[in-house]
Design a protein that fits this description.
Length: 64
């Protein structure tokens, strides 16, 4: 069972989901899309973009 195909392009690892991988990832992808839609609807584009920027910075701090 293979969920993804891997290839290297310019020294970067690129992964593509197989049909089986896409099927397994679909529930997570759908919830993520719903979260994004709700966030942008609630806060508007500018505030939502700022929120996601702050969250990315927060994750960077947490990884250290």
């Amino acid at each position: 069972m293979s969920l993804a195909k891997v290839r290297w392009v310019n020294g970067k690892k690129i992964m593509h989901l197989t049909a089986e991988g896409k099927e397994k990832a679909k529930p997570v992808w759908l919830v993520t899309q719903l979260f994004e839609d709700k966030t942008f609807a609630k806060f508007g584009e500018k505030m939502a973009a700022h929120l996601f920027t702050l969250l990315a910075e927060f994750c960077t701090v947490c990884r250290k």
